[in-house]
Amino acid sequence: MRVSYSPGYYAPIPDEHIFPMKKFTGLYRYVLEQNLIDSSDIIEPSLVDMANLTTVHSHRYSSGIMNGGLEKKELRKLGLPWSKRLAHRSRLAVQGTINASLMALQDGIAGNLAGGTHHAMPDYGEGFCVFNDVAVAIKVLRQSMWAKKILVIDCDVHQGNGTAEIFKDNEEVFTFSLHGAKNYPFKKPPSTLDIGLPDETKDDVYLSTLGDALDDIFDQFSPDLVYYLGGIDPLESDHFGRLSLTLNGLGNRDRIVIKKVRAEDVPLVLLLSGGYAPTLQETVQAHALMYETALELAP
User: Where are the domains of the chain?
Assistant: First the structure.
């Protein structure tokens, strides 16, 4: 399986910051060490073109990220300290998702060892999400006629408000979000399908809800390409998640999604999205589950 990755995915932030910026480098090393991905299948992205970035994001906001011109209140909302390295990593990660999309169309499945930044809106970032990589990739692929009908399966514990808002009037982009009902964001623009779960939802309810929802979605919608945002924050141990999945349950979640999409013979893009496990090692191993599962289910 080919994946996108660049050493530039890491941008320095204060050590005490809650966002696990080191997870990108850690996951890269882990998938190589565990022979989940061959080094020859790791494709390094370039910076996304501004013309592609601004299919979703305003010129004002995009330029503000590039040159450090955002106001303090915008940076507070974003939740990350601005730096040239942060701007650079954000453009790399968006191109990484575009590349993974094209690789999935060619190979059937591909991934980005980053991405899934679903809170970013057209004119601002929030929730540690600078640019909405999925939205940009969808716009680029649709404009280029690489794909027409897109399904976004968002299993991050936080609702994908940015993606929902961006595609709210587009019937050819189906946005599905399975998330914690009482969790961030507190204003949730409607996705095509939203399922909010109560606090402390455990494996059995979560997995049956997900399986039933996917069956219903594929009964009514036939996508050309699927994006899977496999956030690891539904784990019971997550700092912010408030749900109660075990690590085994998280792996079964990935198995349900990947198996269903592959059974429908639709190209699939794997993206990390969020997760705040107690340690970096736990974060990396949980994110690696989707790649272990994809390898296990490979034909």
Answer: 2-297
Q: Give the per-residue pLDDT at 241.
A: 85
Q: Is it the case that residue 299 has pLDDT exceeding 80?
A: no
Mean pLDDT for the chain?
97
Using alpha carbons, select from 269, 279, 268 the residue that is nearest to residue 235: 279
Strands, sheet with 225-229, edge to edge from the N-terminal-most edge strand: 42-43, 2-4, 109-112, 268-271, 225-229, 150-154, 173-180, 193-197
- The answer to whether residue 178 scores a pLDDT higher than 80 is yes
Note the maximum CA span of the chain.
50
Quote the CA–CA distance of 96 and 103 in Å, as a whole number: 10
CATH number of 2-297: 3.40.800.20
Q: Cis ω on the peptide bond leading into residue 189 (within 30° of 0)?
A: no
Give CA–CA dist 161/12, Å, rounded.
27
Q: Angle 216-271-203 (CA atoms, 0-180°, nearest 5)?
A: 55
* Tokens coding 290: 């989707």
Residues 28-51, buried b or exposed e (16+ Cβ, 10 A)?
bebbeeeebbeeeebbebebbeee
- Cβ neighbours of 218 (radius 10 Å): 18
β-pairing verdict for 225-229 and 268-271: parallel
Q: Identify the three-state secondary structure at position 87.
A: helix
Mean pLDDT of 98-121: 98
